Amino acid sequence: MGFVKTQEEIDRYYGFAVREFPGAKMLGIMYETEPEIIARLLPPPLEPAAEPWALSYISHFPDTNLGPGYKESALFVRCQYKGEVGNYCLEMPLDGPDDRIYNGRDIYGFPKKDGSISLERNGDRVEGWAERHGVRFVTISTQLTMKMDEPPLKVGPTFLFKFMPAASLKPGFDGPVLLVRQRTEIEYKEFEMGSGQITFEESIHDPWYEVRCKNPIASYFFTGITRMQPGEVVGEADPEVFLPYSFSRTDWGFDK
Q: Is 92 within the bounds of a domain?
């Protein structure tokens, strides 16, 4: 296990093309927001879907087939690309080992950051929150009322962007801005739905409050096995147009 990997080590690594998370627990909420908010936040060539929906979750992955588990939160907005409806990930804080951040960010393009995350269930009530820089910028709570075999709605793939900021420190990128499509499959052990809400606290580093909740649509909690499938590059973004959207994984710490 040195700086230069052996062929055996390389073969073993790429043998884990499917990232598996046994014993996963997830609290999520889908809600309606304003169409103009989604239109403003989507980088071209992504376009708004017919439904002005957002999706957020708090999860605990106690184990993975790549190493130790972690907790995670994420915020998505509904979108479409060439007629396929899916979700664009705005931000994904992670509470756990650093390599869990690099794996998702460098390979797929998930906008991951480190953070503090909590997920607790007491009876039929579930609550989770995410916090960074002393600000608890999102809290999700749900009162579960019914059990189902599986969710009533399939959310579709996730769309992400992979890019490398310019080494010259001039505006732009070294190389193309790649649009990635990635799908996750879930084997449900238990799936429950209920009445939920999502609240935000303003944060300059994590402005989730911009995607305000107009109306909760559905809230859920499940346990099961999550399997992240390999992604694929399906397009490119115009680098100049994409630049203002490219800082979701960066904290602007130069203001003193």
A: yes
C-alpha–C-alpha distance, residues 58 and 71, integer Å: 8
Q: Does residue 192 fall inside a structural domain?
A: yes
If one counts the domains in the chain, the total is 1
CATH of the domain at 224: 2.40.400.10
Q: Do 161 and 180 form a contact (C-beta atoms < 8 A)?
A: yes
Q: Which of 208, 186, 210 is nearest to 93 (CA)?
A: 208
**DSSP per-residue string spanning 76-131:** EEEEEETTEEEEEEEEEEEES-HHHHHIIIIII---EEE-EEEEEEETTEEEEEEE
Does residue 119 lie within any of the structural domains?
Answer: yes
**For the whole model, what pTM was predicted?**
0.95
Range of the domain at 105: 19-158+184-232
As a whole number of angstroms, the distance between CA 151 and CA 220 comes to 8
First to last CA, the chain: 42
Q: Give me the pLDDT at residue 254, please.
A: 58
Which pLDDT does position 11 carry in this prediction?
A: 93
Measured from the Cβ of residue 163, the count of other Cβ atoms closer than 10 Å reads 20
Tell me phi and psi for residue 41, to 5 degrees.
Answer: -90, -15
Band of residue 183 on the pLDDT scale cut at 50, 70, 90 = very high
User: pLDDT by residue (tens digit) across 59-80?
Assistant: 999 999 988 999 999 999 999 9
- Residue that has been written with the tokens 């607790």 in this structure: 120
13 found inside a domain: no
d(Cα 25, Cα 119) in Å, to the nearest integer? 9
